[in-house]
């Protein structure tokens, strides 16, 4: 297959092809022998699947114009004209309309829940030992195992990840790899030695238990510290009161749940509570920590994986941790959904044992819900910091007053920050943009105020309206974080921290160089970032965004930031953390990249399950990630290094078939890659990425 790719590259993508010209501005500079045309690219990929022409194509036609895609998305995926411009029919200037920018989400995308692929579901009580169904005849699930096995799809592989890793698969006969752990009579086998070895291993933390969920749904949780903080914020100065140590109390008939809340948080109940305390009594049980006594968030010089909606899930964070990410943060969680006990929202807070420095990000528009949510999380989950999202540009969040809309609501913003900071025992950080409008920057005005409000770290998104001439440093999307607690000295070097040549700046704040209107359509305004770093000094400032190589990271450090936060660069190549720490370019092969995807699917099956729902949920998140991975151009194919994140990859033929397949921007080809790892897709399967791409315009 590699020989075929080389031959195709010579015949179809070489410099002699009249359809392939020199590299254009804004296009990644790929060597001439690998460049090709759109037609030859798809002909090469379609050559090996003609024998399967009778099978239904799940996502669109090979021409790339998916019928399920809205017009704005098709404009982005198709480049019908040279120079990356969209073909427009010859019309008069009055009739021509400016095409709508591809931004936000694909709201009209086909969305099928993974549970709909498993119509005949077996009752969960049959999978649990010595358990009876509480619904009896009213249960809507199957209780006949034989009937279930008749309709169950074929196994996807001979080995079960859960069985090999933990010694027992809790999904039993519903597992899509059940043949690996079912006995001759259909019993679920157990590897006692592996189970005994895994008993002492740390588990995934920050889950939502059933008792707390019922409490939240019935609104039986009382937030005493939050209410006291809110009264002080809304009514002005109040007499000094010794705050209680509990985060949440409940009505007298819910004492058992209340005890569970305190146990999970590691704090005892105060003397005024009807619940007796267990264990030693410490000062923290009756006296709140002062701001200067809070745990210090010292991450200067460390590599920070930014919170990434949809793609920043736990399996992906495990991949990044393996490649050298030091600090990780969960996906954005909506505070109102957390207070309602939604299991899907609480899943965003889960923390894997490998995440040694981990935080969660909250989004909200009002002080009461944000403060109560912070009080709840303060005792029920284990995190090193809590981050407030003040940078989300999505209309659904912005129009409700959340996200970057808080930058224009300074009064509410101050109440949220002060209230959340008062009920937290861990550092509070803020992630924000430069502003809301393109030419109106607000970050430099807010940084001193955030410092006075007690914020520990700020991430500001800054996008310049005018592209600065910073040479190689002019890359888009830098995100920064500002540390607003008393400054700490940089921590000693460890095997996971960057080399001394990378740590060049003292602690300072962080900033993201874009406004809401700019999204990802401008280069980062580094002069403004440097200005904000001086304003925030001596607090640490982290830079993040569009960093795609160790040269980009080194240039970011020269602006005075304390470290870098990696966002889309980690989605394009998660091994970027290794490149930065080892100060080298990694010409990773297609087989190595496929192994990374295979590890992601293994982590996904561990996290979401190995039944049909778990497999299809893993596939969905894999496909979302592949929509970013396809933009990576291998090092060996580039005419000059490094690749820049704002350069659009042209059509090219890789060094082997798999490398070419991974370069495709068609959902149908991403599905083919997923089938290599998770087996065939269910009938009627369709996929369209959640987020639109607008970075190359």
UniProtKB/TrEMBL annotation:
A GO MF term: zinc ion binding
Basic residues: compositionally biased ranges: 100-112
Cross-referenced InterPro entries: Aldolase_TIM, DUS-like_FMN-bd, tRNA_hU_synthase_CS, Znf_CCCH
Domain of life: Eukaryota
Domain C3H1-type: 117-146
PROSITE patterns per the UniProt record, alphabetical: UPF0034, ZF_C3H1
Stretches for region Disordered: 1-117
ZnF (C3H1-type) ranges: 117-146
Annotated function: Catalyzes the synthesis of dihydrouridine, a modified base, in various RNAs, such as tRNAs, mRNAs and some long non-coding RNAs (lncRNAs). Mainly modifies the uridine in position 47 (U47) in the D-loop of most cytoplasmic tRNAs. Also able to mediate the formation of dihydrouridine in some mRNAs, thereby regulating their translation.
The protein's name in its UniProt record: tRNA-dihydrouridine(47) synthase [NAD(P)(+)]
Protein's organism: Cricetulus griseus
Lineage: Eukaryota, Metazoa, Chordata, Craniata, Vertebrata
